[in-house]
Automatic annotation (TrEMBL), chains A, B:
It comes from Paenibacillus yonginensis. This is Bifunctional ligase/repressor BirA. Keywords: ATP-binding, Biotin, DNA-binding, Ligase, Nucleotide-binding, Repressor, Transcription, Transcription regulation. Residues 29-48 bind DNA. It comes from the Bacteria. The gene is birA. GO terms for molecular function: ATP binding; biotin--[biotin carboxyl-carrier protein] ligase activity; DNA binding; transferase activity. The lineage of its organism: Bacteria, Bacillati, Bacillota, Bacilli, Bacillales.
Amino acid sequence: MDKNQIELQQPEQRLLRMFKERAGEYISGEEISRQLGISRTAVWKQINKLRETGYEFEAVSRKGYRLTGEPSRLAAADLMLAARTSVMGRNLKLLDVTGSTQDEARLLAEQGAPEGTLVIAEEQTKGKGRMGRSWYSPPGNGLWMSLLLRPNLPLGSAPQLTLLMAVAVCRAIRSVAGVDAGIKWPNDILISGRKTSGILLESTGEDERIRYCIAGIGIDVNMAAGELPEDLRAIMTSLRIESGQKINRSELAGTILNETEQLYGIYMTEGFGPIAALWEALSISLDKPVTVQTPAGEVKGTAVSLDSSGALIVRLADGQTTKIISGDVTVDPLN
Amino acid sequence: MDKNQIELQQPEQRLLRMFKERAGEYISGEEISRQLGISRTAVWKQINKLRETGYEFEAVSRKGYRLTGEPSRLAAADLMLAARTSVMGRNLKLLDVTGSTQDEARLLAEQGAPEGTLVIAEEQTKGKGRMGRSWYSPPGNGLWMSLLLRPNLPLGSAPQLTLLMAVAVCRAIRSVAGVDAGIKWPNDILISGRKTSGILLESTGEDERIRYCIAGIGIDVNMAAGELPEDLRAIMTSLRIESGQKINRSELAGTILNETEQLYGIYMTEGFGPIAALWEALSISLDKPVTVQTPAGEVKGTAVSLDSSGALIVRLADGQTTKIISGDVTVDPLN
């Protein structure tokens, strides 16, 4: 099995949980051995395995081990600890650098990877945005990931999944970073009017069915203001800038997986209604004057709701409503 | 440029048209030279070029050239002559053998190939059917091709394109082979209750939009009864078996391209209405008792119409109607 593609084994994960639950404490090798049901030698091996992925332990004789440092890099063990999921992210591929996590995930999908397969890279050299745009994905302070979904649904449902992913990411950001993030239709996450996350849902279908979808998620997590590209500072921000603190990327990724698994479960059993309601509650474009650039031209009006397919309903100046299936929304300043 | 990927040049095509319009006649090199506006040497070169692709010419001094044989293999020149299109098939890749024309076309699509790009193979070693099934694609007597479409439409429109392709293929088969072919929902082509063609529309989308679709078309054209796999003879047939004659595969492919270009043009300007009407006129499952295997279970009833999205409307025994988005239809025998 590829070193980076690990389904985490129980001892390693349970070991880490012990140390995290008793932060700052020494735990004796004997106690660990007893609690995990493994030999003292095995404990020592597990500790060294975690050390190799960036965790730091102090070992003091007659006291035991103490966790003194965590990896600044994304670590599989950390991420799996934050994700209390049974499907999403359970098949994990962590990469130092890749062209695009979307392409990597697609390759895995074509090879038959299971639903919930997650690709995360520290750095993307050809990060993909919507409509052929590129996505700036430098190493270290961002979260660049792609999640494979295999819903048994018609192709026309893909727009609903796009909105579902926006809800999952927005809720995770709000909960982990404690910031007032909102959604701009269909799936940009904004804080104080500036974008902090973009989502790209790529779908592959056969006749009328979805074969698989890959949700690409890019979040500017810990960039300082100076790290954002100069020409984008007016329209982009990071969770660190907005929250005033460094955010644990593993916790954020894990929380996104938790939210996705919950919302996806609701969606598959209850349909789009509850997702639409959650989306509308987080929307920053509803009840606002908007300008929408659509393939058919510019539309100006007031965004009023989502329809059952996930399209945006806009009320025009003459009181009529129109349905926007696709487009770029700008919320107009109030005069 | 790849030898197989040719945008046909005018002289070669016009030369072939001359010989076909005056079948059996000798045409002097001088006349050809005059009509095509090229030198006698160039005429000789064009004739040799066609000879290389399988055309046979008799050359008699003082009489000129006479077309005496055509390639039994698919030839680009022949196909382009049959296709009076401006987009569909104009970028053509003819292959002797490939794994699957779908995969080949997808590769070209990802490299930016234009709408209408067509891949045809004499033989597929891993021909793809619907739902992961394989498609038997031996060399010589079938038509195995994939057509790239790049409509600027929402993903939910893909089912309509599936039906459009079925109409195009069915109309072409009826016109070229003179047989009473019909469509079983959504896109199988049947003659006398046996399948002669399958269509597979693979779509790739981004958020709510189609990025591209690849229509895979497989037709059992000139197989004799003995050439069909034994276990499939009860449910499969070929155009040759049904029409009692060998069918010109280039003419069939060209006619499919013509039909597709016309119907696609109508669809993009007028919407799905006219396509649905054409589909319904060719349907063999409407107003018949049907059993449909759907992802949600079996549905029995009478197929009554298409809805605006391309779904099949089935009237149940209790008089209520249900909408089938996806499934395998069997027309039940009347008792």
